[in-house]
Design a protein that fits this description.
Elements: E1 7-13, H1 16-26, E2 30-35, E3 38-43, E4 46-52, H2 59-62, E5 67-72, H3 76-86, E6 90-96, E7 101-107, E8 113-119, H4 122-125
InterPro entries: Glyas_Bleomycin-R_OHBP_Dase, Glyas_Fos-R_dOase_dom, VOC_core
Pfam family, one: Glyoxalase
Domain VOC: 5-119
Length: 128
């Protein structure tokens, strides 16, 4: 039977040290390991591979395709409050959406965007 145990996203970043600091200090990730030019980070089962690509156009500069992950979670209000205290760059404030999710979005120094969402129930999605 097929089962997804985790996701791992590969991000090209202009400055791996700066990006790593953001993921560690602000977003609460931890270091799994590092190898030359790469930093492997995790937030639970959400894994990131940061690759040092100093000549790559940043996600922010492309003005498109900067979204790379949608994290379905529980305790969204807790992590949102923690991120606000840490000074995370939040581009979409937390709110309940008509599709039955409570969502917010953050952006990294390179302009990569991550959405977080928590299921708030089918009755909300139907307007009941």
């Amino acid at each position: 039977m097929f089962e997804v145990k985790a996701t791992q996203h590969v991000l090209a970043v202009n400055n791996v040290d700066e990006s790593e600091r953001c993921f560690l200090d602000k977003l609460g990730f931890s270091v799994r390991f590092r190898v030359d030019g790469w930093s492997f980070l995790s937030l639970g089962s959400f894994h990131i591979m940061l690759g040092h690509c100093p000549d790559e156009i940043s996600a922010e500069a492309t003005n498109e395709h900067s979204y790379f992950a949608y994290v379905n979670c529980v305790g969204i209000d807790d992590i949102y409050g923690d991120y606000r205290k840490r000074g995370v760059d939040i581009f979409q404030t937390i709110s309940n959406k008509p599709w039955g999710l409570r969502e917010f979005g953050v952006v990294t120094p390179d302009g990569h965007r991550i959405m977080f969402g928590e299921d708030i129930g089918k009755s909300f999605a139907r307007g009941l």
